[in-house]
Amino acid sequence: MSLMPTMIELLARARVDLRMGLPVVLTCGDDAALAIAVETLTNARLDAMRALGDLSLAVTARRAETLKARVYDEDVARVTVPESEGLDWIQALADPADDLNTPMKGPLASQRGGSADLHRLAIALVKSARLLPAAALVPVRGAAAFAADHGLTVISRTAAAPLLSESSPLHPVAAARLPMDAAEAGRLHIFRPEDGAEEHYAVEIGRPDRSRPVLARLHSACFTGDVLGSLKCDCGPQLRGALAQMGEEGAGVLLYLNQEGRGIGLANKMRAYSLQDQGFDTVEANHRLGFEDDERDFRLGAAILKKMGFSQVRLLTNNPNKIAMMEKTGVHVAERVALKVGENAHNQHYLATKARKSGHML
Ligand SMILES: Nc1nc2c(ncn2[C@@H]2O[C@H](COP(=O)(O)OP(=O)(O)OP(=O)(O)O)[C@@H](O)[C@H]2O)c(=O)[nH]1
Ligand SMILES: [Zn+2]
């Protein structure tokens, strides 16, 4: 067996490198670039990157819209970084925290022509590292030798792209009995993805009949709502409401998917909350940060249900996208069970925005 890292392992390593502020070498055919996350960029690394050539910044089309930067490559923009600008300028382009105090960062020049594939790959990697979706790139020659000399991780776009668009296979690692308030007959199962990303959990209540639709909930992690009892969303009451209903019926399965903040991570969710304090709604805040409304991967939920032997569900949700994704990934939604709990004065606007912009059923 080879001791060389596989592409999945290299991607996991690249995510850690980027979070630590290390650059990674990206290749695509004859093109290669050094890419570093803007969020963890330091002056020392910026100087070292600049010594290699002209820098460009990869931002998403969503972020480019707020920055009024031209997008020539559909989902990404390649913004030229002027030599006169330093770390603060670069980070202000990536981080919307100060947008309202310093609205005009430009005019910005975007590159057009040639390929944006390396920039697109850089965005996909920083997103999967749960960082702000922005990266600085500089072209490099002789990528393999350069990476070896500097001890850097190399990611080939051709090898990485299919893995980044798929959802990683998950495997059960442990399960045990867990009596809970809502049901004494509880069992917690832990699932681990092959790509080294977060583990996900399944709470099984009673002994659900695998040949009939099971009462199911796909719950996305919300530290603020689930643990702290935040009034800004309805997650805490939904979590407890779903478990309570499963307890009353004597059977059910609740998946606790660690996709905090609709898949952007807790740090980015707090950035979104800070923008909400400035007056933007939940969807606008995600867009200003450079994310889509919802970055979650619901295929994970279907994969776990199937591993547990469930192929049909009575799904507790108000989100039509969850139903569509279940059906698309081979879990039949026999019934939609409404889950309306936890509305309060603080989250009324949030719930109304989800209904208006994300199609949630009221
Ligand atoms: N980015 C972002 N995420 C949020 C915000 N408020 C809550 N969340 C996250 O949204 C997710 C809530 O998802 P769910 O409880 O599955 O809700 P849903 O998609 O509305 O669907 P149902 O509850 O099934 O109707 C959790 O991951 C929360 O952390 C917000 O303002 N911004
Ligand atoms: Zn929440």
Note down, in words, how this protein is organized.
With 362 residues, the protein is an alpha/beta fold. It contains 15 helices and 13 strands. The chain has helices at 7-20, 43-50, 61-67, 87-94, 117-128, 143-150, 157-165, 223-227, 235-249, 260-263, 266-277, 282-289, 299-307, 320-328, 348-357, and strands at 24-28, 31-37, 56-60, 76-80, 134-139, 154-156, 170-177, 186-193, 200-205, 214-220, 252-257, 312-316, 332-337. Strand 12 (312-316), helix 14 (320-328) and strand 13 form a beta-alpha-beta unit. It starts with 6 loop residues before the first helix and ends in a 5-residue tail after the last helix. The model has no long low-confidence stretch (mean pLDDT 95). Residues 219-222, 233, 235, 238, 259-262, 264, 269, 272, 282, 286, 317-319, 322, 354, 360 line the site of guanosine-5'-triphosphate.
CATH architecture of the largest domain: Alpha-Beta Complex
Q: Ranges with pLDDT <50 over ≥5 residues?
A: none
Helix fraction, binned, reads: 25-40%
- The run of helices and strands is HEEHEHEHHEHEHEEEEHHEHHHHEHEH
